[in-house]
Amino acid sequence: MVGVGAVVCALVYIFIFMGSIMKGVRCTPTWLIILGFLLVALQVEASIHIYKDGKFVGESNAFIYWGGNEGLYASSDHVKGKGVANGISFISFESITFTRTEEAALKHEAGTTNSQVEAIIVEVKDKNKIGDHSFPGRLALCCSGDLAKTTGCREGSVIMDHDSNGSPYSIPTHFTGQSLQAVLNMKVNISKTGMYTLIFVACERELEGLTVEGHTVWKNPTGYLPGRMAPFMTFYAFMALAYGFLGVLWFFQYMRNWKDILQLQNCISAVIGLGMSEMALWYFEYLNFNMTGHRPMGITMWAVTVGAVKKTVSRLLILVVSMGFGVVRPTLGGLTSKVLLLGGTYFLAAESLDVVENVNTINDPPGKERLFLVLPVAMLDAFFILWIFTSLSRTLEKLQARRRFAKLELYRKFTNSLAMAVVVSVAWIGYELYFKATDPFGERWQSFWIIPAFWYVLAFIILVVICILWAPSQNSTRYAYSEEVGEDLDEEEIALTSSSKPALVLEVEKSGVKPDAIERKPINTDVFSLDDDLEEDKRD
Predict the structure, then answer these.
(1) Which Pfam families does this chain map to (predicted)?
(2) Element (DSSP H or E) covering residue 280
């Protein structure tokens, strides 16, 4: 709920931001319900699912409580290791305590074994083996008297069609006498790889008001990382090395040409450092997660915050580069506050989304909540893209008019790279929507990691392109802003301008614009414009 509250603040901030900006602008099946019980009071700490006063909810002809779901690999004899990487995969029920009402307990005599609660472990692919599907659109989870006569199921139990391996698994727990509580302690070894869902089911109507407390531990052969998250540990290690290698190359060039370093290149150095820190933090967070089964809030918050800062700074870097900062203008002038406001807003939205998705959780947020979290980030990303390409267009026009061909060629390459990145991004978003639409139950969980990993790789590629285009060199100052007109002119152009007339007059005459027209040019208040009413831009 803290994350949702942060998003509300972010939305208010967005509306304030959009208002300030506009001042300067001119112009299912029943099974889905069972799997959807994410809104139940369930606390999750990594692969340890904790249940605190969890209340069973009436669904179909049963009372159910959603216990979690994870991708698990089958136990393997090929994994030989000590500690958690011992090749054993299991779900362990530890001190699972079911509590019924006094009214339900008093209906039974002392010393008898009576009401039962079943823990059902089912692989998503076997979901149709649970319950009776005789009537379309209606699922009967429990065996009633009528169904017992027609199907041969055991009355008062969950209807299941077991395979040769015993899946789906059913672990019954019985109350005895007039006791209010029944306790479950058991470990179930996983012999088949799949996405598993745990639900607790009570079939008897007298168990209305049933609650559950305790926790379950889910483990894979190589550790406690859930199956769909396990590939990320290797991925983050690889990306940390990639950022480190890029950082070494950049630092080498930086030190060789430290006398000719541009302010923009210092910003690039900061982004490389943030990227390397983010990947390293995520790697160690996942490593700790895999070894202990816990996801400590401290290191996760550090990773989330550094990641949000890196995303924000990366977008701001691309934006200011598109505006020509340090190349065709010395400062952002009046746009500085608006750029910082946009960056601050994006940081809040990105931080809120990442906190809810990562801090003390391994399950995806419900669809509506996730949409509420993603929407502000998507809106701001769209605004960034609009502002970036509008600024690039103005910068290219400005360089073309002033005949600064070296800078013009640089910015054309940069524009083409960004345009290609946008096209690839749109195509990937389409694939992501297709992937999720065709896999509502997470059956392709082993490929899930590719979806978010793509965005990390794309961000890294864009950073590499920027590093190549603005690499430190002895000629770095050739692309720097200078008050001298004709700084980028070729030798032939310099010869043409070597006359008694001042260079500025000749430059204006070649552009076909009268000097008087320039002096009478009104100030453009468009926030996307590169023109501003500051003295440094007038001198440019």
Answers:
(1) GOST_TM
(2) helix 263-292
Residue ranges of domains in the chain, CATH in brackets:
48-219 (2.60.120), 227-486 (1.20.1070)
The answer to whether 367 touches 433, Cβ cutoff 8 Å, is: no
Query: Collapsing DSSP states into helix, strand and coil, what is residue 80?
Result: coil
For the stretch 255-272, pLDDT in tens is 988 877 777 888 899 999
Q: CA geometry: angle at 214 spanning 210 and 217, to 5°?
A: 130
**What's phi and psi for 441, nearest 5 deg?**
-100, 5
pLDDT per position as a tens digit, 274-305 = 999 999 999 999 998 898 888 878 888 999 99
Indicate the pLDDT class of residue 30, thresholds 50, 70 and 90. very low
pLDDT in tens, 221-237: 989 988 888 899 999 99
Q: Tell me the backbone φ, ψ of residue 95, rounded to 5 degrees.
A: 55, 45
Q: Give residues with Cβ within 8 angstroms of 185, minimum separation 6.
A: 93, 94, 95, 96
d(CA 461, CA 155): 61
Bond from prior residue into 452 cis (ω within 30 degrees of 0): no
Q: Which residues pair with 65 in a beta bridge?
A: 200
Q: Say how far apart CA 220 and CA 71 lie, in whole Å.
A: 9
- pLDDT computed for residue 136 by the predictor: 66
Give the Cα-Cα-Cα angle 503, 507, 513 (nearest 5 degrees). Answer: 135
* Token pair belonging to 398: 């400005």
